[in-house]
Amino acid sequence: MNRTAGAVGPAWAATAVVETPAPRIAPPPRDILIDVVRGFAIILVALGHTNLGVLHRGWWGASATGLRLSAAIYSFHMPAFFFVSGVFLRAGVDKRGEKRYTLEKLRTMIYPYALWATIFALATIPFARFMMQPTPSWGTFFFNLVTADTFWFLPTLFFAIMIGMLARRVPMPLLFALSAAVCMFLPHTNVQFEDRGVRHLPFLVAGMWVGNSFTLMQRVPSLAAALIAALCGAAIVFLTGQPYAESGYLFIPLGLLGTLMLMLVAKCLGNSRAASALAWTGAASFGIFLMSSFPQGAGREFVLRALRTTAPWPQLIFPTLLAVLIPAWFYHRRVRLRISWLFIWPF
């Protein structure tokens, strides 16, 4: 995850009386926009997971709000993550070389995937009565681990990144067209990391195609950015509410629309406090993704047992806040707390 620098200080004007050296000012962090997008996306991940819990327990009742919310969120929140993962891919490989880059991804993606998949499987034993899924047998656990059947994101992203790394010298328009064709027409194999990796590959390639050109987004006037973002959001809400929303042909357009919307909103926020808060969240998105289930479940039980309510909005908002803020706090203090081994291979 990228770290975000502090806010930029005010511009300094040269004095006309005494010539003094201009103080050195840190340039605006070039990837604050990307971290803000990550912040938005991981909040949507937490919100989507919390909403699924509310839906599965029937707490939305006869209201279609939960289904509409889920359809809208799931149409683009993971594509946005694949997109931002592709933005720096080519530069990262060129800087480190294929071997070192691959080893780094194994240490920071496959190791924590295996570790946290084990933690979650073991957690189903003491917390079984609070969870929807049963405790898996050892055979089921190892099958799910190899195929990424339940904890799919990290091995899927690794798979897509490896394809992007090996194909990075192919002209990007051609690579995007090929990845889109494979996404829409390749038969499913029932191996989750492969099926989902192929499905999300166009977004990673789109990020590779954009590369450092994402900084051009800063030149879009804020009013125009806000209007276009609003139109993108309205289009997503409309399209995901239609009977044909599940069509495979809509998956790529909706994912790109949602990603563009998040980038435009991030541009509108600039270097504001809201942007800094979202960038802080985005920089911790890896930790939030891995750890959020535990505070989320605790928040749901607190609202249920202490506040004695299954009303959907309290059950949606409070657990989502806990699912984001608590893991982010731990992740940003992982070195001080000596828990870095939870996120990266320690040897």
Residue runs with pLDDT of under 50 for 5 or more positions: 1-28
Global morphology: globular
User: Percent helix among the residues?
Assistant: 55-70%
Computed CA radius of gyration, to the nearest angstrom: 21 Å
**Strand elements, count:** 0
The end-to-end span amounts to 19 Å
Count of discrete alpha- or pi-helical segments spanning 4 or more residues: 15
Question: Which short descriptors sum up this protein?
Answer:
66% helix; single chain; 347 residues
Overview of this structure, please?
It is a single chain. This protein is mainly alpha-helical and about 350 residues long. The protein has 15 helices and no strands. The N terminus is likely disordered.
State the gist of this model:
By secondary structure, this protein is mainly alpha-helical. Helices cover 66% and strands 0% of the residues. Helix 1 packs antiparallel against helix 2 (65-74) and helix 3 packs across helix 11 (248-269).
Layout of secondary structure:
Layout (H helix, E strand, L loop, with lengths): L31 H25 L8 H10 L2 H11 L1 H8 L1 H26 L14 H10 L5 H14 L5 H14 L6 H19 L11 H19 L7 H22 L3 H11 L1 H7 L1 H13 L6 H21 L15
Helix pairs in contact: 1-2, 1-3, 1-11, 1-12, 1-15, 3-9, 3-11, 4-5, 5-7, 7-9, 8-9, 10-11, 13-15, 14-15
